[in-house]
Each structure stands twice: as structure tokens, then as C-alpha cells.
Amino acid sequence: MLLQIRKVSLLLRRAKHSKSHWSQVQKKQFARDRALENFDDFYGQVYGNRWKSIRVALLSEHKYMALVNQFGDCERTVAELEADGAINLREIYAAKKRSLSGTFEERASGDKIFKMDQRIEAFAENRERQEMERLYKEDVPEVGIREEVGAMEEGAVDFKKSLSKTLQDDKEMDFQRIIDPDFGTSALHEFIPATKLKGMEDYVPESDHYKYYSNSADFPVTIEMENSFEIPQNLDIYTYERGNCSDFRPPRNCSTGVLSHFLLDGASILPALALDVQPGDRVLDACAAPGGKSLLLLQTLRPGTLVCNDVQESRVNRIRKLMGSYLYDFSENWKQKRCFITHGDARNLTEYDMYDRILVDVPCTTDRHSVMENDNNIFKSSRVKERLRLPELQAGLLANCLRLLRPGGSLVYSTCSLSPVQNDGVVHMALSNVFNDTGMTVTVRHQIRV
Question: Secretion signal: which residues (predicted)?
């Protein structure tokens, strides 16, 4: 009996690991990796030897504090927190103040500021030079964009060259790959390798971000030394001793139907306390969400009126939910009476000369979040333009909020960033713009020690 030979087809297929395999995950650069790389580059040059300690702190666990809710069972809550080993922040501050013997001397910080200015200038120049080297090849003469497009129209581009050869020759991005919007759609018909394509209207050089930092004084400003810092007597904030990052017990429901305490990052209490709200003040929290600082201001029982504003509806809803969880009579006695929750862009508010105190906690790079989490990270490749234009947004918010202040009022500008560009640079730019537009002059209060 003869066996019938069947035809066998052999299909070769290269096995690949899935995207979740450790070998693929290791190769991928996440947003938090880009953030840390950026900080090592920028902050390492700005802060010098101090950056190593700052870096360790950024990568360490959060240090939370517990704000006792005055509208709940506050005495019971205080007793429970103290039984857990927590210490009232007021006692820590008083002990620190006594150790300094009540003397506050102005520190000689002028030289440090001058050195920081020099470091930022050098870093910005170096970043700009790197970008120019990346855009212009060394062996290509510097020519204008219009001349490049003109050369393309005259046949300077070899259309007979194969695609693989073209991509090999043009690995680095040059101005042949940037489309000037002034030329309309005609330039789109030219052959351009599709590996890197950017429209000039969307292209923001990273070096431009650091140019927002300026140390030139082109407007009058008075600087006063401030040595007073007060924690209101009816405000109970608890924390653990230095180096102890123990977790607090979760908030419980009180007999009044609200939560017992609110947990917030330790640094978040400083802007609200620095605002130094006085009884009856009309207060604006321009970028209020998620609402922790606004809640702290209400717990002082000092604001006559508090306006909590934010630009996103979802974040505004978070403020409403938070207030309802901690103020038992929020709907009856607070909502739209003493506490107004508004939805809008603080750059467009027009209640000029209306507020005694304004807190401007602007959107920023949120350094600790950026090096710890990938979700909602501003260092994502899709958010480069948003990140580089942050100082422009911050300066717009600060400049308009300055116009909302009554004469003699106070404003606190705060960020969650170590960047001098987003702090000193933005303040300088906003003060300059306000003076040029309105002639307004301000006094900067320098807190000597806290």
C-alpha cells in the first residue's frame, strides 16, 4: 500500500513579547522618568549640591497633616489624634519660635539669588544652543525658512531618491521638515519624510520656557521683611514629628453628620496661613480645586465671604462635595451666602477692587506628583506644549488677580514646583505686565523665617 505524500507549508513567524512583558516595559520611558530626567538636568544646575537632598525628598513618601473639623466632634477628634502620637502644629511652631529666642534676622540671601540668576541664564543659553544644533546640521549653511522652501520649489530636493535612502540621510530634523503656515498648503505637496513633522505654529522650543525667568527690574517694587506668622487659635492641625511619615487614622463620621478631620499635604497649609485672613475679609481662592485650602480658610471662621473658583466643572463639583462633607449646614447657611463656588477662568474675572485677600495656587508641574505617578502627568509626550507654556498661563492668572484686589489687600501666589521660572520668573513677569497696563505698584513681603 502506497502512502500519499501531502504538501506541508512551513510558516516562519518571529515571536515577540507582549507590551506588558518586563523586557518591553524596561525599554519604555514613562512620563515620570522624563520628569526626573528634566529635573536632574535643570534643578541640578540651579540648586547645585543641594539638589541631591531635594531629590531624595521628592521621591520620599508624602508628609500629611490632619485638619480637625470644627463643625464635628472636635474635642473627641483632638483626643484621638493625640493618643495616636500626633502633635498640634501650633505647639511645634511655638517651640521653634522660642528656640530662636524671638529674634528674626534678615539672612544674607542676595548672593544666593544672584548666583541662581546666573545658573538659570547659563542653563537657558545651553538649552537654546542644543536646540539650534539639533535643528541646524553643522554641514548645512544657515539659511532662512523662505529660502529653504524656495529651494524646494526650484528642484533642490531629489525626488528620484528612494524612501529608505531619504530617511537615512535625513534622520535629524531640520527646517525642511517644518512647514511655514505663511506658504499655505502648497508646501504640503513637496516630499517631506514623515518621521518627524511639525507645524511651526505648534512648535515651541523648550529653551523658550526658561526665558520667562528675568531678573531685570523695569518696574517699581518695594520689598519689606515680614517676621510675623500666626496660626489662629481655633485652628487645630496635627502632624507627626520630623522624619515620622506614619499614616493618620481615616476620618470618621461625627454626631453632626460630617467627617472628623481632613488630610492634606503638609506644605499645602502654608499658603492659606500666609494669607493672614482677618475677621470679615472678602476672600477669593482663584484656583480652589480640590478645595483643601478653601476648607482650611473656612475652619479659621474668619472670612466674611469666601469665593471658591475653578476652571473645570468636574473640579468645581469636587469642591461642592468636599464642603458638603465637612460643613453640616452647608446648603442652608453657607452655599451662595458666605461660601460661593464659581466656575470660570480666573484670567477673565472682572470683579476689580473687590477682595481683601486672594489665594492664587496656580496649575504647575507639580514636581512630586510628576516624579511619582504616570497618570495625569504633565511630562507626557502629548502635553509638551502645555508644559512649556505654563509660565504664560501662571502669569496671566496672577496679573488678573492682582487687579481684583482692593487697595491695601494681600495676595499669596503659590505653586507645587521648585522651578524658579514658575515662581520668581512668573511673579516678575506678572508685576511688570500689571504696572505697564495699569500703573499698579505692589509691595512684596519677604517672610524671613517660619
Answer: none
Residue 99 sits at the vertex; the CA angle it makes with 95 and 104, to the nearest 5 degrees, is 110
Q: Say whether pTM exceeds 0.90.
A: no
Which of 254, 308, 401, 416 is flagged as catalytic?
416
CB 376 within 8 A of CB 34: no
- Cell 521653634, located at residue: 96
Residues 6+ apart with CB under 8 A from 393: 362, 363
CA 1 – CA 267 distance, rounded (Å): 89
* Residues 422/424/428/431 CA torsion (nearest 10 deg): 90
Beta bridge partners of 223: 444
364 is catalytic: no
- Ligand-binding annotation for 291, yes or no, is yes
- pLDDT for 75-95, tens place per residue? 999 999 999 999 999 999 988
Distance CA 269, CA 408 (A): 23
Give the position of cell 470679615.
Answer: 280
Q: Is 289 annotated as a binding residue?
A: yes
184 is in an annotated binding site: no
Specify whether the CB–CB gap between 257 and 327 falls below 8 A: no
- Tens of pLDDT along 304-328? 999 999 999 999 999 999 999 999 8
- From residue 215, alpha-carbon distances to 219, 295, 359 in Å are 11, 36, 24
Q: Which residues of 385-408 are buried (b: 16+ CB within 10 A; e: fewer)?
A: eebbebbebbbbbbbbbbbbbeee
Confidence category of residue 198, pLDDT binned at 50, 70, 90: very low
Q: Is 361 annotated as a binding residue?
A: yes
- Residue 226 CA: distances (Å) to CA of 40, 105, 147, 274, 357: 33, 10, 57, 11, 17
d(CA 297, CA 353): 21
d(CA 353, CA 436): 18
When mean pLDDT is compared across 2-11, 137-146, 261-270, the lowest value belongs to 137-146
- Angle between helix 292-299 and helix 313-326 axes, rounded to 10 deg: 30
